[in-house]
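Please fill in the sequence for the structure shown.

STRUCTURE ENCODING:
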């Protein structure tokens, strides 16, 4: 896997007006898994008149949830015989096991393997036969938002990439799939498996999840250790983050800085670089190198084979962190949250 920078070139972006869904709507689609993405994608496909079933392991606890949502289900063992198109939405670390157990040696020409993250193909956990189409549709949001935006007659952008075009129609299938998710309303951006995988992992680790979580915790701890009430620290370092991110989401840094006070704006441009300075960027470059070389992928796969001991310990430690216990108490006072939550663990 190359560690050199990718050549910059204009991106192709497709919208509903550019997309013919007819081929996609002639396909039988098996969605493997009913987590966040499985929930959102399978329901959007169904509401777009696609022939979709949710594929699960025998005895899966998710079967009742899928059926309650009005979806048909089938067992993993039935997928190769029934489906024309197989979307992998089980966790990345299970792709190899599912592929080798239920699909390898049973696939036929004309079928398609589809992914919403290129991890298992890019790092060669799944090596498809040369007679099937292989493509990627990666909505740029959690599955619950894929669903909620579709239900509002909107959509989230998706990335699209073709890894293998055995039929000569892989791109048409991919665009049709994206359109049925609602992404044709927002834009379907053409890329490669390599670029999607490496940028997605980096964004999660350095900024969106890892970086943001660590920054919030560090800010909270700094205020509490200085003697300020944890409730105030929670509001300043976590609760109000949504307000700022929403402004960035809608109009970039420019809209955020237009909306905040002069005092906040000056603090932003003068103190922000003190917190996230050259040392942080150097650490980010190291994170990216580990992704590009496959070091992170091997570490993550080994962690899963061992039963995820490090992941479970770190997540449990954060669950007991004062930031979380303070937040649980304060969120219980916010009655407006209960009726508008994207995640309902009973349903999805």
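FILLED IN BY: designer on duty
SEQUENCE:
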């Amino acid at each position: 896997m190359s560690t050199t920078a990718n050549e910059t070139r204009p991106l192709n972006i497709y919208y509903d007006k550019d997309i013919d869904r007819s081929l996609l709507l002639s396909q039988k689609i098996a969605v493997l898994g009913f987590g966040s993405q499985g929930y959102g994608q399978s329901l959007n496909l169904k509401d777009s008149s696609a022939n979709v079933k949710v594929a699960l392991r025998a005895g899966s606890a998710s079967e009742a949830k899928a059926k309650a949502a009005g979806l048909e289900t089938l067992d993993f063992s039935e997928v190769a015989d029934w489906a024309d198109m197989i979307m992998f939405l089980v966790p990345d670390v299970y792709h190899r096991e599912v592929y080798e157990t239920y699909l390898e040696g049973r696939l036929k020409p004309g079928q398609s393997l589809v992914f919403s993250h290129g991890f298992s193909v890019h790092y060669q956990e799944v090596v498809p036969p040369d007679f099937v189409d292989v493509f990627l549709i990666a909505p740029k949001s959690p599955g619950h938002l894929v669903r909620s935006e579709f239900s509002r007659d909107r959509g989230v952008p998706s990335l699209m990439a073709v890894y293998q075009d055995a039929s000569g129609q892989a791109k048409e299938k991919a665009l049709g799939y994206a359109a049925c998710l609602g992404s044709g309303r927002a834009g379907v951006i053409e890329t490669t498996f390599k670029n999607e995988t490496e940028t997605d992992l980096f964004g999660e680790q350095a900024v969106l999840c890892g970086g943001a979580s660590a920054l919030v915790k560090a800010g909270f701890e700094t205020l509490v250790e200085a003697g300020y009430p944890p409730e105030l620290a929670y509001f300043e370092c976590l609760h109000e983050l949504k307000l700022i991110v929403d402004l960035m989401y809608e109009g970039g840094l420019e809209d955020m800085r237009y909306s905040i006070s002069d005092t906040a704006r000056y603090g932003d441009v003068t103190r922000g670089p003190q917190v996230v300075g050259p040392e942080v960027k150097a650490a980010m470059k190291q994170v990216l190198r580990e992704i590009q070389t496959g070091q992170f992928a091997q570490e993550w796969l080994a962690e899963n084979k061992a039963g995820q001991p490090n992941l479970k310990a770190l997540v449990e430690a954060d669950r007991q962190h004062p930031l979380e216990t303070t937040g649980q108490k304060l969120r219980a006072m916010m009655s407006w949250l209960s009726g508008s939550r994207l995640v309902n663990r009973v349903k999805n």
